[in-house]
Amino acid sequence: MTWRCIANSFEEETIVRVETLNLNTTLGATTAYVDRPEQDSEIAVLLIQEWWGINHHIRDIATRYAAEGYNCVAPDLYRGRVAADTEEASALMQALAIEDGLETISKAMAAAEETYGIKRFAINGFCMGGTFALRAACEMPELKAAAPFYGDIPSEDVLKNLKVPTLFIAGERDAWINPEKVNGLKEAAKKYNLPVEVVSYDADHAFFNDTRPQVYNAEAAADAWLRVLEHFRKHLAK
């Protein structure tokens, strides 16, 4: 276990604990990167990676959650691989079956529950991780809240089963998860009375990623982060 001093959103110094969970899945062993707050908590956020893998940006977000008092568990869907460029990232993402990713997320939940006594989980994901976060919210009703960022929208026969309160974050200039796809989510939410709120920003895909200056939008990212924290506070309360 590693201890780190960092600053939380109130600019106060706090301590987080960095640990690793070992996971066994059908397609092989993997791990979950864990950031834990200084004070033990029964609440956790499952953080699902972008198509790059568990890189510095994902670890940084995990630390931010720990600074807010949450356990943050980031299951490694790529089993240790981190993409060096977009070509490798695309290949890794294409090779990842939805069933495999969902199983890894489920195993991470079970391991965190057993190891840390976690009783309530939310899920947050970005890009590819947003796709998995929304899909998990449709298939894992035990989740208390979800916050997918610019992830792909599942088919209507999957989406109609969504029971988990979901805050979907989108970029209006996103060429992948474009406004047409986002409108499809809104229409399905209305049709099936789904617990979905969609917030769109005048921003590109991956606008939350502050390691990519070509797409990062500081104002949108800051506002989205506050919305996610409020969403989780509301739905993770006892």
Number of helices: 7
Mean pLDDT: 95
- What name does the CATH topology carry? Rossmann fold
Main pleated sheet: 9 strands, mixed
Strand order of the largest sheet: 1-2-3-5-4-6-7-8-9
**From N to C, what is the helix and strand string?**
EEEEHEHHEHEHEHEH
Give me the count of strands: 9
Strand composition percent: 25-35%
Task: Give start-end ranges of low-pLDDT stretches.
Answer: 3-11
- Give the CATH level 1 class: Alpha Beta
Q: How large is the radius of gyration?
A: 17 Å
Taking the alpha carbons of the first and last residues, their distance comes to 29 Å
Shape: globular
Assign a percent range to the helix content: 25-40%
| CATH architecture annotation name | 3-Layer(aba) Sandwich
Q: In the residues, how many domains can be counted?
A: 1
Structural class: alpha/beta
Structural overview:
It is a single chain. By secondary structure, the protein is of the alpha/beta class. The chain has one domain: Alpha/Beta hydrolase fold, catalytic domain (Rossmann fold, 3-Layer(aba) Sandwich). Helix content is 38%, strand content 27%. It has seven helices and nine strands; from the N terminus they run ββββαβααβαβαβαβα. A nine-stranded mixed β-sheet has the order 1-2-3-5-4-6-7-8-9, with helices on both faces. A hairpin with a 5-residue loop joins β1 and β2. The longest helix has 19 residues. The two termini are 29 Å apart. The N terminus is likely disordered.
